[in-house]
Write a structure and sequence with these properties.
Largest sheet: 6 strands, mixed
Strand content: 5-15%
Oligomer: single chain
Shape: globular
Order of helices and strands: HEHEEHEHHHHEHHHHHHHHEEEEHHEE
Number of helices: 17
Helix content: 40-55%
Distance between the termini: 53 Å
CATH class: Mainly Alpha
Number of domains: 1
Radius of gyration: 21 Å
CATH architecture: Orthogonal Bundle
Structural class: alpha+beta
Bound molecules: protoporphyrin IX containing FE
Length: 404
Amino acid sequence: MNAPMPTTHDDLQDLPSYPMERDDYVNPARALLTGPPISPLRFVGGSTGWLVTGYHEAREVLRDPRFSAERWRGDDAMRAVPESIRKERSSGAGSFLAMDAPEHGRYRGQLTRYFTVRRMRQLEERIEDIVAERLDALEAAGKPADLVRHFALPIPSLVICEMLGVPYEERELFQSVAAQLLRQDRTEEEFIAGRAALQNFLHTLVEAKRKEPRDDLISLLTAVDELTDEEIVGIAGLLLIAGHETTTNMLSLGTFALLRHPGQLERLRADESLLPQAVEELLRYLSIVNAFPVRIALEDVVIGDVTITAGQSVAVSIPAVNRDPALVDDPDTLDVARPRSSHLAFGYGIHQCLGQHLARIELVVGYRGLIRRFPGLRLAVPPEEVPMRSDMVIYGAHELPVTW
Ligand code: HEM
């Protein structure tokens, strides 16, 4: 029987605090893996909610429309947000990650055709060119070099900039805003300031594209009658941030994991046809999305033997869910030849990642390029000295010093 939500002050203090630090460079906190599939938790901001670590339970929550993705409600559970700031913060036109149906579908429906498997395959050749250029840049940087700076960060940034029609020269702005917005301890003031800087930049860009459309996604969106500039700015901001932070960290953390499992790396070297399933396995094993999704119950919902009451928040731990034995056997083992699993690294339900096919291609082409170009690739520092992103919503490595 799962624990009921505690009610007394002392009981609340005893609850595990969420998000939790990982046990080591990759494994989720043990406490996440050993508890019941749904249990009470205390968010770092102080309020209480439910933690879902079971694979089946997570799918139930993420596909159930009685749970809202409306971001600010979830955030308010995670952090202690002053009332004065709530109103100012919540104007997120177009940012559909934080919307429920039917509003969510109005925006996502405008984009799905640009992110299909077929469309993404058409981009593959261009992605290969970008990866080749970044391999040259990594080599030119000289040994030792930071793989994040020269390889993992530029590849997805260049790709999403080209798709959207954002000048890559302006990357400093959106990369630094992303770095600020995704810090776990960022203040609401920092959030508002960072988002305003990004919105101003994108507003100017959208205006320019309305006057002189080009062959890019933002220009295509300006041709959709029912979308306002504010909405296009919101959509573009979401794609720009979601499109580079996540893949960057998969490229670098995936490389780190393979360097720490040389046998697995050798298998990939010996048989490159394993790469697509190796990417799925790395997505499952690393589960870089650390501190969301969080959903809010719109009414009382029974999941398993727990009743989540209206207004309570539910955090799904993707790292834990993807290590549930209900998903795969021997979940703590990295096995690049494992048959593709139905992992939740890209989420589930109506918010399942729009850019997943793009991410998969970037990862296959990126890892393949590294493996071919640098047969002697290795860490340039002891693994314990790699600075991990325990302070960020998206996990990974801040830097990855490598040599070859
Ligand atoms: C390895 C890379 C990636 C990972 C692990 C990842 C993970 C996720 C996850 C877990 C969600 C669901 C969030 C939720 O339910 O609250 C999501 C949503 C989303 N992702 Fe990704 N993502 C990746 C790459 C990308 C890329 C390259 C794009 C570029 C376009 C992208 C765009 C989006 C968008 C727009 C959503 C919101 C979808 C919706 O609300 O309908 N992601 N992603």
